[in-house]
Specification:
Number of helices: 14
Helix content: 25-40%
Low-confidence stretches: 1-34
Number of strands: 10
Shape: globular
CATH class of the largest domain: Alpha Beta
Strand order of the largest sheet: 2-1-3-10-4
CATH architecture of the largest domain: 3-Layer(aba) Sandwich
Order of helices and strands: HEHHEHEHEEEHEHEHEEHHHHHH
Mean pLDDT: 88
CATH superfamily of the largest domain: Periplasmic binding protein-like II
Length: 359
């Protein structure tokens, strides 16, 4: 099994702060008040090698970034740790990462901001549709209760642990009643096939890979946690946003246009993703993309979901100490500007309840 390259939030943040990055207080956006439009710039995007990055890959593949005046380069990284390092160091301008490691790192001083969801929902305060628990062949596991006493492969310090814990607690179990085996998502599929773990808790495309490639594997549960809000988030650094507000809006506008395309062309988006994600097979990509909700809008429900479900989990596990206001890690103004200026890009999505809209 391959060991995770970095145990994020602790070592990564210490490295970055120690290297001389100055932690600044939460800032107010300088987002433009004029309608969102193109902004001529060269940008680098750091993307995790997962199906969630399809909106970035498609925007580049279909020339959408260029339509917005952006000369974009995408660097694919194995985990969100590398993505955050790239952005904090200035090597990348934007990126996608799980909300769990991002909030943990910001709480420890990393000067990054959530500017939009990459995937998630703006109409509910819970979301985990891209995550699943898959049982291996011959284990007899058919339900969450059946996980008690079993070995579960999971990448520690990732969102998948929180997802697993939320489901266990809903069934009156705890993490202490299962054995967690630390491994990357890809290694989890291999371990399931070799029967060295009984189940895996992970995010797409790895549940789909397990189900299609490991004979006898079965779904224990996909999504369906109403006590967990776990979107993928789009982030940038405070310094970049302050210096390039129009570019931030143009970037989000391009991604919103791309997501609108992907929602109505899932199979095509899946095939584009296979060109970027090493080893991702077409059949796996086409199944996996159906479990990702491409809704990048910001709403009060997004903030509430992170504050009421994600933050308490991080406090309980010791990743965040003391009180933490999730709003300090967010600047929603850029995305709200896109939502107002380009409503056509969100066609087909359920409307945000009027009381939960952000101004």
């Amino acid at each position: 099994m391959t060991k995770l390259r970095l145990m994020f939030n602790r070592g990564a943040v210490g490295l970055l702060v120690g290297a001389g990055l100055v932690v600044t207080p939460a800032t107010t956006s300088f987002a433009a008040t004029t309608p969102v439009g193109p902004a001529k710039a060269t940008i680098t995007i750091a993307a995790v090698g997962s199906i969630d990055g399809t909106s970035f890959f498609t925007a580049l593949h279909n020339g959408i970034f260029r339509q917005w005046g952006l000369n974009a380069k995408i660097v694919v990284e194995p985990t969100g740790v590398e993505v955050m390092n790239e952005i904090a160091s200035g090597a990348a301008d934007f990126g996608d990462v799980g909300a769990d490691p991002l909030l943990t790192s910001v709480a420890k001083g990393l000067p990054l901001k959530i500017i939009a969801d990459n995937h998630g929902t703006a109409t509910l305060s819970y979301y985990a549709e891209n995550q699943a628990i898959v049982a291996g062949p011959g284990t007899g596991i058919k339900s969450i209760a059946g996980l008690k006493g079993k070995k579960i492969g999971v990448a520690l310090n990732t969102d998948a642990v929180g997802y697993l814990q939320s489901l266990l607690e809903q069934h009156h179990l705890s993490l202490s009643q299962v054995t967690l085996v630390n491994m990357t998502p890809a290694d989890g599929v291999t371990a399931l096939a070799r029967r060295s773990v009984d189940a895996i808790a992970t995010f797409e495309p790895w549940p789909s890979a397990a189900l299609l490639e490991v004979k006898g594997s079965r779904v224990v549960i996909e999504g369906h946690s109403k006590t967990w809000y776990d979107p993928g988030v789009i982030v940038s650094s405070e310094s970049y946003l302050s210096a390039h507000p129009a570019v931030a809006e143009a970037f989000l506008g391009a991604v919103a246009q791309s997501e609108n395309f992907v929602r109505s062309h899932l199979a095509q988006g899946a095939m584009i993703a296979t060109q970027w994600i090493t080893g991702l097979k077409a059949a796996v990509a086409k199944r996996a993309i159906k479990y990702v909700t491409f809704d990048m809008r910001m709403s009060k429900l997004v903030v509430d979901g992170l504050q009421h479900y994600m933050v308490p989990f991080l406090q309980k596990t010791g990743a965040i100490s003391g009180k933490f206001n999730v709003s300090s890690a967010m600047d929603t103004s850029y995305m709200v500007a896109v939502q107002k200026a380009r409503p056509q890009f969100f066609s087909g999505l359920p409307p945000i309840p009027s009381g939960d809209q952000l101004s």
